[in-house]
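Input chain follows. Return structure tokens only.
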Amino acid sequence: MFRTSNFLRWVLFVDAATCTATGLLLLIGAAALEQSLSLPSELLRYAGFSLLPFAMFLLFLATRQHLFQVGIWAVILLNVLWTVDSFLILAVGWVSPTQLGSLLVVAQALGVATLAGLEYVGLRKSLVAAAEAQ
């Protein structure tokens, strides 16, 4: 267990905010997005629905004074899996999005990968601070 650094806390808040906004957009706008991006509305809704509980988990973590490493590692792993799946869905041809659809899938994947990297940095900072405090 370690004390959560402010940096890690803010990255978790940003991740939660982007998950909430994206999740709601995908849930509410799936039909319109399907037409402009050529991504199946069922896939968009499922992705949007899956983001909301994850956002709640991130908010829970961000508001804790102390965390276990496993919680942050779970977030990092899930973000990495989301990133890999985003590229995989394009690479194997499960969907045939428009050019804009492909660009948005890649852009959000890179954003999620960035958040995973920042969460890793925040975890390392928190652990170093905890070790120095002892």
